[in-house]
Amino acid sequence: MTKQPYIRLFEEIHKEDIPLVGGKGANLGELINGGVKVPPGFCVTAKAYSDFIAERNLDKYILELVNGLDIENHEQLQIISAEIRNLILTTDILEPIEMEIRKAYAQFQRNLQVDDLYVAVRSSATAEDLPEASFAGQQDTYLEIEGIAEVIHHIKKCWASLWTARAIYYREKQYFDHFDVSLSAVVQKMVNSKKAGVLFTSNPITEDHNQMMINASWGLGESVVSGMVSPDEYIVDKSNNQVIEKHIATKNFLIVKNEKAVGTTKVAVKEFLGEDLVTEQCLTESEIDQLSTDALRIEKLYNSPQDIEWAIDSDTDELYILQARPITTLKEEETNVIEQAQAESNRVSLLRGLAASPGTGSGKVRKIKDITEISKVEDGDILVTIMTNPDMMPAMKKAAAVVTNEGGRTCHAAIVSREFGIPCIVGSNNATEVLTEGMEVTVDATRGVVYQGILEEKQEETKNDRNVESSGIEQINLHQLAPITGTKVYMNLGEPDLISKYSNLPFDGIGLMRTEFIFTHLVGAHPMYLLRNGEEKQFIDKMSEGITKVAQDIYPKPIVVRLSDFRSNEFRGLKGGEEVEPIEANPMIGWRGVSRYISPEYEEGFRLECRAIKKVRDEYGLVNVWTMLPFVRTTWEVERVKEIMAEEGLKQDQQFKIWIMAEVPSVIFQAEEFAQLVDGFSIGSNDLTQLILGSDRDSGILNTMGYFDERNPAVKQAIKMLIHAAHKHDKTVSICGQGPSLYPEFTEFLIREGIDSVSINPDTVADTRRLVASVEQRLILNKLRSI
Ligand code: PEP
Ligand code: MG
C-alpha cells in the first residue's frame, strides 16, 4: 500500500496502472519510462474520484437522479446532467485528497524551479481505452491553469465531465454501470508551444505503414486537435525521415495562453505572428526529422502504429510528446519494416507521377494508343498510355496497374481506376517514352513511383480489395463499427456489377451513379445511332437493367442517377458515334450535359434515358431512384429539361427528386434561383475547380504544378456560398467530385460548412465515415462547451 493513495508521479506509472490513472495517465508513465521526453507531471488517481463520490454520499444521490431519467428526453437529460455536475463542483473534496494534491503541486513547483507554473489538467478515464467504450473526447482538458486553487477546481471539473449529457447517454446506451467508469486527473506542466500538432506513425489515409503523417500548426496543439485550423500536412518516408509529400495550409488562427484570464484564447495568426506565417511552412526539416525519430521510437515501444500529440516549446525549442495512443482504425499489415527498408534501397525508380488510385501492381508494360490496340493488353499487364478514354475500359479492367502521361486526379484514368480498385499513376509526363514495350515494372501507385522489375510487393492487394474483399469478418466489422453520422455518407459508383463487391461498405446511398459506364459496357452504342436503326428498346432495357441492379441491391437507400455526361469526343467512341457526333475544339466546355438534352440533335436520345429511369421506377417499383442533371449552366435550360422529363412521366414531386450538379460557376452565383427549380445540388468539384481556376482538370502539367486543387480558397468560397444559398431555400447539398475522397481536410471543411452529404469513392467510405463522425462530435462538443 502506497503512502499516497491519491497521487502518482509519472515516473511511478506503468501500463498496467490503467485502473488507477486511466488510459492517458498510464500512457504518459509508459512514455517517460521508455525514455520519451514528456512534460513532467503527476496523476490524481481514480481512487480520489471514487472516494470523493462514496464518502460524500454523492453516488446514491446521483443514482436517484439517473434512474428516473428518460435519456431520450433531451431536455431532461441536459437538466439532470447539469445538476450532477454542479453537485460535484460545489461539494468540498476530502481533506486527505486535498492535502496530497497540495503537497504534490508544491513539490512539483520546487522541482521545476518556476514561480509562475502553468499546468494542463486533463481527464483520464479508466474505461477510455476499452475498444467498445471509446470515450475519447468525452472528458475535458483544461490548459494554462495557474495556482493550486485553480488546479483543484479544474480537477473537480474533470470529475464533473464524466457526467456530461453525452457521457450519461453513452453509458446508458452501452449498458455500462455509471460507477464502473472512473476518472483520474492528469496534472502536467504546460508546454508554451510555438508549434504543435499530431503525428500518425502510419499514413491514416492510404494506410501505408511505411509512411508517417504529421499535421502541424502554430501555437498550442488544440487548434489542430479541435479542427479549428487546417494544419500543414507532411507525409514522411519512415525509412529515411524524408518528406515525400507536403501540403502547406493557410493557418489563419492559433490558440495561445490567455493573458487576461485563466485558460487559452484564439487569436489571428496575421496579427499575433505576422502575415507571412499564415502561409509559411510550419516545421523545419530538422524538426520533422526529430519528430519522426521520436515517433518511430514510440511506435517501437508500443509495437503498434501510434497517434501522437506533440509540441515544440517556444522558450527552449525542445520537442515534447504530449500523448500517444494506438491508431485503432488501421488494419494489420504483415510487412516487416526492416525488410521493407532494405528492399527499398535496392529499387531503381524509373518514373514519377501523381498517385491517383492507391495500390501496387507489377507486370509487363503494354503501351496502347487507342481502341485498335486494346487487345494487346492481357491479364496482369501494366497499361501505359498518353490518356485513357472510355474505349479503353475493357483493357483497364485486365490491367494490374495503369500509368498515363497526362491527367490529374480527376481525369478519366483516375476515376475509372479508383472505381475498379486498379492502382493508377497519372500525369507522369513521359511514361510512354521511358517505359518500353514488354519491360517488367512495379507500379507503386500509393507513392506515385514506377520501379524497374517485379518487386516483392507484387502480391500486395490493392486498397479496395483490402477494404472490401479480404474477409467476410472484415466486411461485417465495417458495418458494425460504422458510426452513425448526421452528414450522410454516400458512395460514387459507375459499373453496376461492382455493387456486389461494395454493398457491405457503410454508405447511406449512391450519391453519384455515373451512367457513362452503362453506356460503354451494357449498351455499347450511341443512343441516336440505335434510334436511327429502330433499336431504341435495346437502349432502354440495358440502361434500366444496369440501374435496377444497383437500386435493388441497396433499396431503400437512395441512388442518384446522373444522366449522361459524355463529352462529344467520348460519345464518338461509342458504336455509331462518329456518324452522329460533331467534332468540337473544346469538348470539355462544349456540348455536354443539359445543353445536349435540350437540343434537337440529342433530345430523342435523352428521352430514351428518361424512359429507362421511368421503367426502373414503374416496372420494378424502385422509387429510391432519383436523377441528377450534369453540367447545368442556366436556369432556362433546367426549366426546359424539366418539361421534357415531365412529358416522359418524370415529374418532380415528393417521390421523385431532381438534383443538379453544381459544377459550372454560374450555378454558384445564381444558386438561389436554381434552388427554386430543383430538390438539391451535388457539387461536381472536378469540373467546378477546373472552371473556377481556369485549370484544365486533365492537364498533367497544371496538376503537378499544384494549380488544380479543390482546396483553393476560391473554390472553397464558392462551395460555402452554394451551401448557404441552398439552405436558405431548404434544399440539400451534396458533393460527388474527387475532392473529399482525396483530402480529409477538405471533407472536414465541407462538414463545418454544413454540407448535407458527401459522396465518395468506395475505397474511402469507411475512413470518411469515421472522419465525419469525429468532426461532427467535435462540433457538438465545441457547441456544448460554449453554452
Ligand atoms: C465532377 O465534375 O466533380 C463530377 C463528379 O463529374 P465528372 O467527374 O464525371 O465530370
Ligand atoms: Mg463533372
Number of helices: 34
Q: What hetero molecules are bound to the protein chains?
A: phosphoenolpyruvate, magnesium ion
- The helical percent reads 40-55%
CATH superfamily of the largest domain: Phosphoenolpyruvate-binding domains
- The CATH topology of the largest domain comes to TIM Barrel
- Low-confidence spans: 129-138, 329-342, 457-480
- What distance separates the N and C termini? 43 Å
How many structural domains are formed by the residues?
4
The top level CATH class name of the largest domain: Alpha Beta
Task: Characterise this structure.
The chain is an alpha/beta fold. The chain folds into four domains: 7-189, 2-Layer Sandwich (Dna Ligase, domain 1); 193-328, D-amino Acid Aminotransferase, Chain A, domain 1 (2-Layer Sandwich), CATH 3.30.470.20; 343-468, Phosphohistidine domain (Glucose Oxidase, domain 1, 3-Layer(bba) Sandwich); 471-786, TIM Barrel. Helices cover 41% and strands 20% of the residues. An eight-stranded mixed beta sheet has the order 14-21-20-16-17-18-19-15. An eight-stranded parallel beta sheet has the order 28-27-26-25-24-23-22-29. The protein has a six-stranded antiparallel beta sheet with strand order 9-8-7-6-12-13. Helix 33 packs across helix 34. The longest helix has 22 residues, at 765-786. It is globular, with a radius of gyration of 29 Å. Residues 129-138, 329-342 and 457-480 have low confidence and may be disordered. Magnesium ion binds at residues 630, 663, 684, 686-687. Magnesium ion (MG) binds at residues 630, 663, 684, 686-687.
